[in-house]
Amino acid sequence: MKRIFEFVVLGIVWGLMAGKAQSADLYVPGSYPTIQSAINAAIDGDRIFVAAGTYNEAIYINKKIDLIGAGVSQTTITAIGIANTNTVTFDGNPADNSAITGFTITKANRSGVYCKNNADPIIQNNIITGNYRGIYCSSSSPKIISNLIYGNSGSGIYCS
After folding, report:
1. Across the chain, which distance is largest between two alpha carbons, in Å?
2. Which of 5, 45, 52, 129 has its CA 20 to 30 A from that of 25?
3. Contact status, residue 144 vs residue 123, Cβ threshold 8 Å
4. What's the pTM?
5. CA 127 – CA 159 distance, rounded (Å)
6. pLDDT tens by residue, 118-160
């Protein structure tokens, strides 16, 4: 009987661990109406695919996810009309190695992409334009790869 109990407990633990290791693909707007609602539902390791379109929202990422747009000429995140905000914010160590790729990021009256509290995301293959600052890093070390950063009124990239 003791042996059966050990196998049952081992099976439950293994099942829980296997469930945690699985990552999921989430789709905007297919499964979630907004990018932020998909981010809120995601767990570390998930990928969020964002269909072509313009998404008027300021997004906040504090977990390890991949945010993938349909392409810079097709998928835009804009913070137009949202006061005192950044378009995309990566916050803290949980966001380390998160990635954003394939977007035009625009119209923030602060920063198009803001990395704070030791967040070290991957910012790759985006257009970042029409913001006050393109990318602002505060105590962070993002990997900035193959982005087109232009037409921001304050600075392209600012690090402190």
Report:
1. 72
2. 129
3. yes
4. 0.85
5. 19
6. 999 999 999 999 999 999 999 999 999 999 999 999 999 999 8
